[in-house]
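Can you make up a polypeptide sequence alongside its tokenized fold?
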Amino acid sequence: MTTTTPTANVLHTAYQKSVASYWNNEKDPVNLRLGDVDGLYHHHYGIGDYDPSVLEGPEDTRDDRIITEMHRLETAQAKALLDHLVDISPGDRLLDAGSGRGGTSFMAHQRFGCQVDGVTISEYQVGFANNQAEQRGVADQVTFHFANMLDTGFEAGSCRGIWTNETTMYVDLFQLFDEFSRLLEFGGRYVCITGCYNDVTGGRSKAVSRIDEHYLCNIHPRSDYFKALTAHNLVPINVIDLTAHTIPYWELRARSSVATGIEDPFLTAYREGSFHYLLIAADRV
């Protein structure tokens, strides 16, 4: 697989083309300013309590303190995900499915010392992340591909671990986990962090629907993750509810200069219980 794969072979539907266009044109400060803190550019949210002292002190540096603290929380989220990839050696291969600008891929390579491949349907993100790999001197070990995570083109059984970090809401879960089951070696590990709506409260709440509209995504019900995993020989070994742990991030973001207006729907959905933030680790059997 290369980054020069023809678009027609990667983007199969009008919806995928619209999502790719969104991310090709995305230059949101909430992603870029946080990444500028230390050069790790993420496309996800954070977990953990924030340090209230960032809201104190000189007004003219307050926002910079908030940005730095938000980045610490989003990096903590990526660390929590990587903590659930087990028995990874330098000779293994990992897949970052929906890799964005590459932040978690670089963290994984630094931790495990193995080959990491990222796939995204955004050609802009591929170029940005591969440029980052060159600058970091790891382009021979961390590579980003213009590819569809539903049909990567990689060899069966070639991956020891795969993760998705807030990307599953853009795809059909049964198609996705069929591909991941094909790619993972026996005993390999898949780790997912995702927002999902609560089946117990019924369908999508108004707040969840606003999140869908904002990001052009299709948030899945919680139960669909477990149905699709078990249908494809992926057995959950850990399920952690991170909902309470992500609320502080959103509270802090709402007080920052990079707030986008979507903070209130997230906070409402989490607090009312219609939306959950889950980490799921599953083994290929």
User: Anything to note?
Assistant: The longest helix spans residues 62-82. The chain has eleven helices and seven strands. The chain has a mean pLDDT of 95.
